[in-house]
Amino acid sequence: MPQENSQKDLEIPSIPETDLQADGVVQTPPTDESTVTVAAPTVESASDAPAAKPADGTDAADAPVPDAWDQLGLSEDVLAVVKSQGYEKATPVQARSIPLALDGRDLIASAQTGTGKTASFVLPMVERFKGREGTYGLVLAPTREIAQQIEETIRTFGGPMGVRSAVLIGGVDMRLDTQALATYPQIIVATPGRLCDHLERGNIWLEFIEVVVLDEADRMLDMGFSTQINRVFDDLPQNRQTMLFSATFPPPVEKLARKILHEPERIMVGRTNASATTIEQRLVQVREDGKSSALRKLLSEVQGSTIIFTRSKDLAKKVFLNVHRMGFHEVTYISSDRAQNQREEALSDFKKGVHRILVATDVAARGLHIEGVAHVINYDLPMVAEDYVHRIGRTGRAGASGLATSLVTSHRKDREILKEIERLIKRAIPVIQVGSSRSDEQGSEAVPAESNVDLAPSAIEAVKDVAPKVKVLPKPLARVAAIEAPVVRESKPVVNDLERKVAAELASLGPRRSLRSTVFPVD
Fold first, then answer.
1. What order do you get walking across the sheet with 279-285 strand by strand?
2. C-alpha atoms less than 13 angstroms from C-alpha of 333 in its C-beta half-sphere
3. Residue among 237, 213, 220 nearest 106 (CA)
4. How many CB atoms lie within 10 A of CB 29?
5. Which pLDDT score, from 0 to 100, does residue 270 have?
6. Strand intervals (E) in 395-481
7. First to last CA, the chain
8. In what helix (H) or strand (E) does residue 306 lie, and over which residues does it extend?
């Protein structure tokens, strides 16, 4: 649809690049091969696209949501492909997005991770471009892995319809890109840096693009791709459909949307920063030098496929080697400093079950669809609270149950980011002891694992009997008391007979036991 707003100078705030910005770096020298350009379309307008449902002016957020595929406006042949893949019902974001996309509307779609956003834009593009020759669609993705995942989805749904695609990502010989472009694919999937490299070399033009999709737009801005996005939109035609998909919607993405979208429909499904309710979340409080021991126990306890997240690529490799030395030989890892073919092989083997354990930086936390991940372990917490939601979103997908465990130290940075995470997800994450299946209902302010003690049965019964009546308990009794109330830390002297009795019990267990107190609000 016509775009009245100017695409010049989008003024997207530049954000410092992370170690994942590898796709923005030219990794191969220019070739002497002939320039490859995108073929001009053989269809004069988008009127040849299948008829879409008429718009009734209803706000997308308030409209009824059908979950039957045959109610979304897709043609019979596309529906046959969808059903052949075993998809029985559309997810809420798919049900809201697909009819509007088929109608040519600009979209802003935001939903929890793992809710099927990719098919929300791939299916309308397949519907629109089937039977046509020339390149009409462009999808931008933040990382190589997400770009490949999108291209795989296009092949799944578009291949039977004759819709071809090409993926342009860093770490691949440029000559292979030009060969792919020479086939005139209907859809190009690219990382911003690699696409800009082709634009600068004159290998591609975008004058005939009809549909543009920005997937994981928040991640692209986080990674510092604002300059490349500006460059791409400078070359795109004004008369186009633009769809922006994102798991979160911070102010920089709002600003980008105002610049590149024309009267967009806004689709918000669920609370976008929320973690899936199917994921059991828990904390293990450890010293920094105790992480390896805790990790070994966690990997032994949960036998299913596991992703271990680290903050940096250097630590990812160290953890990978450490896990291998522990005797868990079915482990692999991905990070931005691995060659592209190594990253592809590691992901492929993990998906196939060749490797049970994958160690990764946040390169794998967004957009990747890996079925059946049983356990996500945060070896260390992410730098940004929102990334916690995306990390743990690799498990508990599509309604399945999942488990997420985070190793947390007493360091100030860990305490601060944990508070931000719990504020974001609007809940306290329970603390467990490694080797225990029972969560501590006190939340993240509960007693550290090293402060727990074994008490005589009589002392435990006394604690449970008296605890609801008092406000001050020694910290080692927090888990025994199991009071379901917010916890406020405060140091107090031992002031009642129960505590004197317990103090004597603790003293008999050794001199290192602490009698620091915890205040429990009592109604």
1. 279-285, 402-408, 375-378, 306-309, 357-360, 331-334
2. 26
3. 213
4. 7
5. 63
6. 402-408, 472-474
7. 60
8. strand 306-309
How far, rounded to the nearest angstrom, does the alpha carbon of residue 58 sit from its chain's CA centroid? 30
pLDDT of residue 177: 94
pLDDT at 466: 55
What is the pTM (predicted TM-score) of this model? 0.60
Cα distances from 120 to residues 82, 107, 395, 419, in angstroms, run 12, 11, 21, 34
Beta carbons within 10 angstroms of residue 36's beta carbon: 19
Instruction: State the Cα angle at 497 between 491 and 500, rounded to 5°.
Output: 60
Residue whose token pair is 């969808």: 82
Helix axis angle, 144-158 to 117-129, nearest 10°? 50
pLDDT tens by residue, 143-152: 888 899 899 9
* C-alpha to C-alpha distances, 262 to 108, 238, 399, nearest whole angstrom: 11, 10, 34
Query: Using CA atoms in the order 220, 222, 224, 228, what is the torsion angle rounded to 10 degrees?
Result: 20
**Low pLDDT (below 70) residues in the chain:** 1-66, 112-114, 270-276, 363-368, 398-399, 435-523
pLDDT the model gives residue 519:
32
Q: Which residues pair with 242 in a beta bridge?
A: 212
Measured CA to CA in angstroms, residue 304 lies from 325, 333, 382 at distances of 19, 17, 23
For 144, 319, 342, 348, 372, the CA distances from 353, given in Å and listed in that order, are: 21, 20, 16, 9, 10
For residues 379 and 356, give the distance between their C-alpha atoms in angstroms, rounded to a whole number: 17
Q: What's the CA dihedral at 24, 29, 35, 39 to 10 degrees?
A: -30
Mode of pairing for the β-strands spanning 357-360 and 331-334: parallel
Length of the chain: 523
Check: CB of residue 125 under 8 Å from CB of residue 98.
no
